[in-house]
Amino acid sequence: MRKWKCEVCGYIHTGDSPPDKCPVCGADKSQFTEITETDAAPAAEAGQPKTPATAAVEPEAPARQTAFDFLLGLVVKHHAHPIATHIPNGVIPVSVLFILISALLNVEVFARAAYLNMVVVVLSLPVVLFTGWVEWQKKYKGAITPLFITKIACAGLVSVLAFTSAAWLMIDPQVTASSGKWSFVLLNIVLLGAAGVAGHIGGKLVFKD
């Protein structure tokens, strides 16, 4: 049975022809290349001495990297983006929970705790967005598919809503006890949903299912 590899996300498809769209990242069939026996065993002769014929077709040495390119490579190699996203993805649910408790029970200390948690989220987002952009460009070749468009949109929405939530709590610390508290609660529920969708897409890309 023939095998095909998505050159965007690395998904492997088994069949006589590639799928019309990658089931993981949504790339079209033109992004699939067939895996040949040569591809499957790239290091079979790694320990063999080079013959003149082999030496003749040896590829040229890659161009020298700049320090910035080296740094970007480290970001992808050491999975900086998945690590960074654990901060907002872990803190946002706690912050939203505190906001709900404060709105339902009118306990101000929970609103204060929610504010401090949301500040942590806002401070972490520049690193999350930067490492996400690097991974998208380096690992996924800047592919524009519905999956990546959705992930980028969710990241933008999380950034805007997290900043808005933190600013709202800073300006009006008693917002969860005011007449507009349910608008504030709704804003944060949408924030939590957007973060959840972005995290789900990230997991789909990592685990290929």
Automatic annotation (TrEMBL):
Cross-referenced PROSITE patterns: RUBREDOXIN_LIKE
UniProt GO molecular function: iron ion binding
Pfam family membership, one: RUBY_RBDX
Keyword Membrane: yes
Regions crossing the membrane: 87-107, 113-136, 148-171, 183-207
Gene3D superfamilies registered for this protein in UniProt: 2.20.28.10
The protein, known as: Rubredoxin-type Fe(Cys)4 protein
Provenance organism: Desulfosudis oleivorans (strain DSM 6200 / JCM 39069 / Hxd3) (Desulfococcus oleovorans)
The organism's taxonomic lineage, starting at the top: Bacteria, Pseudomonadati, Thermodesulfobacteriota, Desulfobacteria, Desulfobacterales
